[in-house]
């Protein structure tokens, strides 16, 4: 069992380069199923979620080679099984992203039903409704979803009830091989969806309007493998910006490897809090903020404020000079982080999907538990300015989505280490 131990009170300086986006790389990997042959993916983050997606694809018969730490080749010519098994879907919900491409290429898929997870119910009803409109028939038994398109996929119009990232992606990946045109209305607009559409178009798909609420897909007969580089991780970048705003030395911290436009609303809120964020080539330079203004934010689909930056923002607002209100509209259980931050001295009251954050003058280091991926990272970052030591446990959550998180923080001068500890509940 590893924990992350942070000693508070040390300034960070220098430059950190973010990895490729988790939420892009996972879908790009799934999309390789659509193009028999060998696709090369670059800028793939070396994180445990990517390893799980690799296992899902290998179980189906794909051959994956690791060219270097961030480059994979995936040969999907020999894929002869269409199943995403329970043990892998249970580890990572995003395994369900193989449903669209499997239906697109083979007309069938068998996917373990994703159960609840620590972010709430997270249903996939919109994926299913959309795919049904394309001609897919669904059956469920023994915890599995069996999807089949007996007459092939036929283009149609789908209006999503909510701009779901996963549903938009699964629909695009199925519709690229459908007969005729599909129009997705109220599509999600996240930069990772644009990245996926770009790769599919390089493969020969005809997708128009990705990144806008209306995406049109004209089905094509075949897709060909390509070489594609995943977009930089805007959420990892946002996490390091928060670290810098809290703890940077006089020269600030450069966060590079991403497109600041992808963090538009987040940077706007950082600036409203008084944080100086300078645009530089391929990223930003961020300076320590001596006094945070309180802020009101509500999480929304892109280009709104991302739910994946909510915990990090709560960390900043917990030290603001006044009261902030944070409203979580995307995931019901995403305030579990607040009670961990309270253990470090924050003053936060949660009511339903609102959190009232009353700024305090500082954090005190404590033993805390990662409630989820982003919350875990935000706790370690809070530890940078906490008095004494902060020990973050359940860091497998952080490993899911942050590559070499401890090493990157250390390279900036943070006093942080990964420590193996015995489980205190063991006899
Ligand atoms: C993706 C991201 C995740 C991010 C989220 C929102 C990946 C691997 N994960 O998750 O990091 O926090 O987008 O930006 O890319 N919903 C339904 N029915 C559905 C689909 C979704 O009710 O069929 C609900 C979900 O329960 C949730 C909300 O819609 O409350 C948003 O879900 P969605 O946008 O689909 O997020 P994910 O694709 O799961």
Task: Chart the SSEs and their pairings.
Blueprint: E1 2-7, E2 12-17, H1 22-31, E3 38-42, H2 48-60, E4 63-68, E5 71-75, E6 83-84, H3 86-91, H4 99-106, E7 108-112, H5 125-133, E8 137-141, E9 144-148, E10 157-159, H6 165-175, E11 181-185, H7 191-202, E12 206-208, E13 214-218, E14 227-229, H8 234-247, E15 248-256, H9 264-272, E16 277-280, E17 283-286, E18 296-298, H10 310-317, E19 323-327, H11 336-343, E20 347-351, E21 354-358, E22 363-364, E23 367-369, H12 373-383, E24 386-387, E25 389-393, H13 396-401, H14 405-411, E26 415-420
Question: Could you give a short description of this structure?
Answer:
About 30% of the residues lie in helices and about 25% in strands. With about 425 residues, the protein is of the alpha/beta class.
């Amino acid at each position: 069992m590893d924990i992350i131990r942070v000693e508070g009170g040390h300034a960070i300086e220098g430059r950190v380069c973010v990895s490729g986006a988790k939420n892009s790389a996972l879908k790009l990997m799934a999309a390789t199923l659509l193009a028999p042959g060998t696709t090369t993916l670059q800028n793939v983050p070396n994180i445990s979620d990517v390893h799980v997606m690799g296992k899902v694809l290998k179980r189906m018969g794909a051959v994956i080679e690791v060219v270097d730490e961030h480059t994979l080749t995936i040969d999907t010519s020999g894929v002869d099984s269409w199943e995403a098994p329970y043990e892998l879907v249970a580890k990572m919900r995003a395994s369900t992203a193989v449903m669209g491409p499997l239906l697109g290429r083979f007309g069938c898929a068998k996917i373990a039903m994703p159960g609840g997870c620590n972010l709430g119910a997270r249903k996939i009803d919109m994926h299913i409704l959309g795919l049904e409109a394309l001609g897919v028939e669904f059956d469920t038994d023994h915890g599995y979803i069996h999807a089949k398109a007996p007459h092939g996929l036929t283009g149609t119009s789908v209006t999503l009830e909510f701009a779901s990232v996963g549903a938009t992606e699964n629909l695009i990946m199925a519709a690229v091989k459908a007969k005729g045109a599909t129009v997705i209305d109220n599509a999600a607009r996240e930069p990772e969806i644009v990245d996926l559409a770009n790769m599919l178009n390089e493969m020969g798909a005809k997708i128009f309007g990705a990144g806008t609420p209306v995406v049109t897909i004209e089905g094509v007969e075949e897709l060909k493998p390509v070489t594609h580089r995943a977009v930089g991780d805007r959420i990892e970048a946002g996490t390091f910006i928060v670290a810098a705003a809290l703890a940077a030395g006089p020269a600030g911290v450069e966060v590079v490897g991403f497109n600041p436009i992808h963090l538009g609303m987040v940077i706007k809120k950082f600036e409203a809090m008084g944080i100086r964020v300078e645009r530089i080539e391929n990223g930003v330079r961020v300076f320590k903020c001596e006094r945070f203004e309180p802020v009101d934010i509500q999480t929304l689909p892109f280009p709104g404020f991302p739910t994946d930056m909510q915990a990090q923002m709560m960390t900043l607002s917990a030290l603001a000079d006044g009261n902030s209100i944070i409203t979580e509209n995307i995931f019901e259980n995403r305030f579990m982080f607040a009670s961990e931050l309270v253990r470090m001295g924050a003053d936060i009251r949660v009511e339903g999907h609102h959190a009232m954050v009353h700024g305090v003058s500082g954090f005190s280091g404590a033993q805390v538990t990662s409630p989820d991926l982003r919350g875990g990272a935000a706790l370690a970052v809070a530890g940078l300015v906490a008095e004494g030591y902060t020990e973050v446990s359940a860091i497998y959550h952080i490993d899911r989505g942050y590559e070499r998180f401890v090493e990157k923080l250390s390279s900036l001068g943070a006093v942080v280490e990964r420590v193996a500890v015995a489980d205190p509940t063991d006899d």
